[in-house]
Design goal:
Blueprint (H helix, E strand, L loop, with lengths): L3 H29 L7 H15 L7 E2 H24 L16 H12 L9 H4 L2 H28 L7 E3 L1 H26 L9 E5 L5 E5 L3 H10 L20 H16 L1 H8 L6 H24 L25 H13 L14 H13 L8 H21 L4 E2 L2 E2 L2 H28 L10 H15 L14 H30 L16 H25 L1 H4 L5
Antiparallel strand pairs: 1-2, 3-4, 5-6
Helix pairs in contact: 1-9, 1-10, 2-7, 3-4, 3-6, 3-17, 4-17, 6-7, 6-17, 7-8, 9-12, 10-11, 11-12, 11-13, 11-18, 12-13, 13-18, 14-15, 14-18, 15-16, 15-17, 16-17
Length: 561
């Protein structure tokens, strides 16, 4: 049972995050519909300069294939650039720790991770990444990957508004995402963290005197600015190996709350962006309602499973304050669990505690969030996944009552359903195929040894990579060529197959004329639709993933609380 003060803390943090997310969603709708914003006076000249340098016309509208092609090319160029940077960092400047270049397989995994918004780290940031690689390579990718998620969602939503087959201009959407959303938010976030005690310096270390005599060098750097885009952009890759469990990255309960709110901003804002863009604000509430039902239920289950530990039954050991093994002692159980729940369900992947030390029940809850990818999911693509689930739910509902399925005046036909199935199946296939290879070949050995826990550790890695989440359980020797190459490919498939599917569905919708509503049209802005959508998402996810949960954490849970 959580103390009253902890309940108040949790409710205040969630309420603040939702309030700011709603405001941000309304603001972003203005950004992507070319309505005036407070930042136009500063951002417009920057935008025009960028368009001139790129040689593009921001007013020319694109079909979904051209839009997808531009997005893929930009991300491919960025991946190759950062791969070379990481591979050659030993001979490049801004490397006072004399960090050698990464091996080709580790450089591939790392560049793939940051390009895909996964930010899964098979390396120790303090000792294996130079300052140049971090700033010019990885941090740039954190902005690009977050912007890519936003522009995909916006192009998808435009499909409900247009009938000429276009979904927008990729270059205009990308630049506006950076100049009007991500950069301003990151600057404000970095300033708040800096004032709260998070360091921001180009020095890669600082010298401190030891109590017993002598000195030690403590790694440091531009942590505040890194952490700001890490959390706001749903990236999750820490500046330190301990991530948000490191005192220099997350020094107090206040910064812990700030980080949680940062993670909520762009993950909970898209439903409000959607409602405003389609000019039906009430359409936001069924989606935000579905997200909150699943998310709050998951939080309650996390608190339940971590609130007691029946594995200690009969040992004579008592505990107060919950099962706190692997948690950072600076934070309470509620602060740690809330951080981890928001991080994993928002596909951020940042960690403030050891996930391998959680109870099997809590591990199952976190895995479930990555299976769903839409409660709320990552920046842009998370809500895009929920929209695809909504289209499928409406399609199935329409078939059951004998009506042509339609949503917001657009028919849901074979083209949309086929791409929705591609998106739906790409996630489990990207997990199950490499998991089968790892289990059958013995390449997936972990320090935890064989058995259900060892299986869970390997499964969690592949699930996290496919969901573009980035959190890890450990202990696992995942710095091998097998895990680096396979993991890099999983992340690329898990990122870009759904993105192509979302753009294709948006393009198919954009080619259709609008259908006037009739008395038999399904009312989607209702509590009934919210409950139907929640049930549909839970059932479909269960059919896809319950078997591997049974082989992993479920089989460890004979002594669940």
């Amino acid at each position: 049972m959580l103390p009253t003060s902890s309940v108040v803390d949790v409710l205040f943090t969630l309420g603040l995050g939702l309030l700011l997310a709603r405001w941000l969603g309304i603001y972003m709708a203005k950004v992507y519909t070319d309505r005036p914003t407070a930042l136009d006076a500063v951002a417009d000249p920057v935008d025009r300069l960028v368009y001139r340098v790129l040689g593009v016309d921001p007013r020319r509208q694109m079909g979904w294939k051209e839009y997808a092609g531009a997005l893929l090319v930009v991300n491919a160029v960025a991946l190759v650039f950062v791969f070379v940077l990481l591979f050659e960092q030993g001979s490049l400047p801004l490397n006072s720790w004399h960090v050698p270049g990464m091996t080709w397989d580790l450089a591939f995994h790392t560049s793939s991770a940051f390009t895909t918004n996964t930010d899964y780290q098979h390396y120790a940031p303090e000792t294996q990444a130079s300052l140049l690689s971090s700033l010019l390579g990885l941090q740039v990718l954190m902005f690009l990957s977050a912007a890519s998620g936003l522009v995909v969602l916006v192009a998808f939503v435009r499909g409900f508004l247009r009938k000429d087959g276009t979904v927008g201009n990729f270059w205009a959407d990308l630049v506006r995402s950076l100049t009007r959303v991500l950069v301003p938010l990151s600057v404000v976030g970095a300033l708040v963290l800096l004032l709260a005690g998070v360091p921001e310096t180009l020095a890669q270390s600082t010298q401190h005197a030891l109590l017993g005599g002598g000195f030690e060098f403590v790694p440091t750097g531009p942590v505040a600015s890194w952490e700001s885009i890490e959390m706001i952009g749903s990236n999750g890759g820490g500046y330190f190996a301990a991530n948000a469990g490191a005192p220099l990255q997350n020094p107090s309960a206040f910064t812990n709350m700030v980080l949680i709110v940062m993670m909520m901003l762009l993950t909970f804002a898209p439903p409000f962006l959607f409602g405003r863009m389609v000019k039906r604000p009430n359409e936001a509430y069924p989606h935000i309602g579905a997200i909150l039902i699943i998310f709050v239920t998951a939080l309650l289950l996390l608190f339940f499973f971590e609130g007691s530990n029946s594995f200690l039954s009969g040992t004579g050991v008592t505990q107060t304050g919950g099962y706190f093994v692997g948690a950072e002692s600076r934070f309470s159980l509620s602060e740690s669990v809330l951080f981890q729940g928001v991080s994993v369900y928002g596909n951020v992947g940042a960690t403030s505690m050891s996930l391998g030390s959680l109870t099997p029940g809590a591990q199952s809850v976190l895995l479930w969030g990555m299976f769903l990818q839409c409660a709320p999911g990552g920046v842009g693509t998370g809500f895009g996944t929920l929209l695809i689930n909504a289209l499928l739910a409406i399609f199935v509902g329409g078939l059951m009552v004998g009506r042509t399925p339609e949503y917001l005046g657009k028919k849901i036909g074979p083209a949309q359903v086929k791409w929705a199935i591609v998106q739906l199946l790409s996630h489990p296939l990207a997990i199950l195929l490499p998991l089968a290879v790892a289990a059958a070949s013995g390449l997936g050995k972990v320090a935890a040894g064989p058995g259900s826990h060892g299986f869970t550790v390997v499964m969690y890695e592949f699930v996290s990579e496919s969901a573009n989440n980035g959190s890890g359980m450990g202990p696992i020797a995942d710095g091998t060529p097998f895990f680096n190459v396979v993991g890099g490919l999983i992340m690329l498939v898990g990122r870009f197959v759904p993105i192509i599917a979302m753009l294709a569905i948006g393009g198919a919708l954009a080619r259709q004329p609008a259908i006037p509503a009739s008395p038999g049209t399904l009312k989607t802005s209702s509590a009934t639709f919210t409950l139907y959508l929640v049930g549909f998402v839970i059932i479909v996810t269960g059919l896809l993933f319950l078997p591997i949960l049974a082989m992993g954490p479920f089989s460890q849970g004979v002594a669940w609380p």
